[in-house]
Design goal:
6 helices, alpha+beta, 60s Ribosomal Protein L30, Chain: A, 2 domains, 264 residues, CofE-like fold, 12 strands
C-alpha cells in the first residue's frame, strides 16, 4: 500500500466570501495533480472559517456576568470568554489561560477552538473603520457546520470534475491522555470517520473483537504534518491511496458518547 500526501501550493490568503472550490481546483492544477476517484482533500479549519466569515472582533462583544466571572478564574479576556461560552455546550475544566469545553459540535477542546494565530482584520471584507487597525482583537471561530462545509465543497468538485472524492476539515486538538496537539477531523464528507475492523482476521487467523479505527483522525494527523502549524502557508493537502472504501461519513461517528467518557 502506498499512501501519498501532496501539499497544495499557491493558495492565497482567504477572505470572507472566497470560493474555496475554485481556489483548490487551481491549486491542484498548480501541483500537477489530476483528481481520481477515491482521492481525499484535507483542508485546514482556518481557510474554511475565513471563507465563511467566522472572524469576530472582540470590540463588538459584550461579556455576560458568567463570562466575567470565568475570565477572572482563567485570566482571559472577558470578551473572548463570552465567545467561548457562546460556542460551547458546557464548561468542563478551567485553569489559568485555558478553558476546556464541550463544543457545540460535540467534541471536547480548549477555548472552543477559537484562535488568534494567522488572523488579520483585512481578511474580512467590509470591516468597520473602527475595527480595522485592532489586529490583536480579531479572533476566528470554527465553521458553523464543518460537515456541511465539507459536503458543499465535495459536491462542487464533483460537478466540476466528475470525480468521487472525500473532503475533510481538520483542526489541532489536545488529548486528555497525551501532551501536545495533533490534527483531528472536525468535519468530513464522502469518507468514513471510523472503520470497524471487528471480525477481520489478523496474521494468525484470529478474528479481531474490539478494533475500531479512527481512520479520519489518522489522516488528519498525517495531513497536519504536511500542513505545518505556524507560517508554512499550506492549508490544503491532497491524499491518494486511502486503504478503505469511501462512504458517507460525519463528525458524529467520531464523538465518544458522554456515558462512555472516562475522563469527565
Amino acid at each position: 500500500m502506498t499512501l501519498t500526501f501532496t501539499p497544495l501550493p499557491k493558495i492565497p490568503l482567504i477572505h470572507t466570501g472566497d470560493d474555496l472550490t475554485d481556489i483548490i481546483l487551481n491549486s491542484l492544477q498548480a501541483a500537477k495533480v489530476t483528481l481520481e476517484d477515491g482521492d481525499i482533500l484535507v483542508l485546514a479549519q482556518k481557510i474554511v472559517s475565513k471563507a465563511e466569515g467566522r472572524l469576530v472582533n472582540l470590540g463588538s462583544v459584550t461579556p455576560s456576568k458568567e463570562a466575567i466571572e470565568l475570565a477572572t478564574r482563567s485570566e482571559k479576556d472577558p470578551r473572548l470568554v463570552e465567545l467561548i461560552l457562546q460556542e460551547s455546550r458546557s464548561v468542563l475544566r478551567v485553569r489559568q489561560g485555558t478553558i476546556i469545553v464541550e463544543h457545540r459540535l460535540g467534541f471536547v477542546c480548549a477555548n472552543a477552538g477559537i484562535d488568534h494565530s494567522n488572523v488579520q482584520p483585512g481578511e474580512t471584507k467590509g470591516v468597520s473603520k473602527n475595527f480595522a487597525s485592532d489586529a490583536e482583537d480579531w479572533v476566528l471561530l470554527l465553521p458553523e457546520n464543518p460537515d456541511r462545509s465539507a459536503l458543499a465543497i465535495r459536491r462542487k468538485i464533483k460537478i466540476a470534475t466528475g470525480n468521487r472524492i472525500g473532503v475533510m476539515i481538520i483542526d489541532s486538538h489536545g488529548r486528555a491522555w497525551r501532551l501536545g496537539t495533533i490534527g483531528m477531523a472536525i468535519g468530513l464528507s464522502g469518507l468514513p470517520g471510523l472503520v470497524d475492523k471487528r471480525g477481520w482476521q489478523d496474521l494468525f487467523g484470529y478474528r479481531l473483537k474490539i478494533t475500531i479505527v479512527a481512520a479520519a483522525d489518522e489522516l488528519a494527523a498525517a495531513a497536519s504534518l504536511v500542513m505545518g502549524e505556524a507560517a508554512e502557508g499550506t492549508p490544503a493537502v491532497h491524499i491518494r491511496g486511502f486503504p478503505y472504501p469511501l462512504r458517507e461519513g460525519s463528525l458524529k461517528e467520531l464523538i465518544r458518547p458522554t456515558a462512555q467518557d472516562l475522563f469527565r
